[in-house]
Write a structure and sequence with these properties.
Elements: H1 2-5, E1 22-30, E2 39-48, E3 53-60, H2 70-73, H3 77-80, H4 86-97, E4 101-104, H5 107-120, E5 129-132, H6 133-140, H7 149-155, H8 166-186, E6 193-195, E7 250-254, H9 261-270, E8 274-275, E9 285-288, H10 296-304, E10 308-309, H11 311-318
Parallel strand pairs: 1-4, 4-5, 7-8, 7-9, 9-10
Antiparallel strand pairs: 1-2, 2-3, 5-6
Helix pairs in contact: 6-8, 7-8
Amino acid sequence: MLEDQTTAASSPTAWPAAYPQGYAVVDVETTGLARDDRIISAAVYRLDARGEVEDHWYTLVNPERDPGPVWIHGLTSEALEGAPLFQDIADEFSARLDGRVLVAHNAVFDWQMIAREYARAGRVAPVSQRLCTIVLSKELGLPLPNHKLESLAAHFGVVQQRAHHALDDARVLAEAFRPSLRDAAARSVRLPLHECRPLTEWTDRAVPRQSTGYSSYRPTSWRPTRKRPACPYPNPGRYEDGKPLKQGMRIAFSGDTSTERDLLEDRAIEAGLHVATSISRLTSLLVTNDPDSGTSKVVKARQFGTPVVDEAAFGQLLRDVEPASEG
């Protein structure tokens, strides 16, 4: 049915040579949206270079803690009790991801959850790039009322059977991604691929097995706003190449970092820097490992002429931050 809805123009004979050779469409269900939450189920649909399904795989995962919002994903503690731990399924998961672009709806969420689970297991996921279908739909200018998976599915006539079930969500996304990919290829649209960096430094907070703190669960956001102390120093202006950072400078972060973002932000604050959540003309420095990513922060930094450094350079600068001027 989907093939009939796809125009002839969306199946080009000349496929863009720069496009990836394979994709892993992924969906994970989790105990919540915070960085210390855990994966409780995962599904992968492997697709070839033109988006055709090769195979699929699904597993439950024992999170070793309370399953979180059962009313959303339907997985109880009893259902997960005999499930394998993540380290037990890491090899199979890796085989499904290896050499492919990870595709997900709100891909930064799925990737960060996966990267953290691999880090806990002392492993590295064999993924170097990801593609977010929300970003792709924006690039294609699809007339969607919002960016929910159900809206993308409806646009392409894909029927959801079990929303918030990893296997069905991955199936739905795979079926919606195929015509999106062909549309992009027909128009020679550059795919919005982003680098995936594994976590090498992170923290886990202690989480009780039984928790009732899910009343504020929000499916549109996964990284709760952190309350930070106000920076006590005035902003001295922009960072200048070759000079040290100075207390009071406004620092923003964008994209994946090998050190968990919260840790980087905490270290910046401890050094007397102001961590900003957005880019403005007052921003002193943007820290990103992917300056060509095209994220909103990178685009605004380019517009404002905000200096940009990568994570490694920022780590070096943090070692010697100049005190704020007195008076």
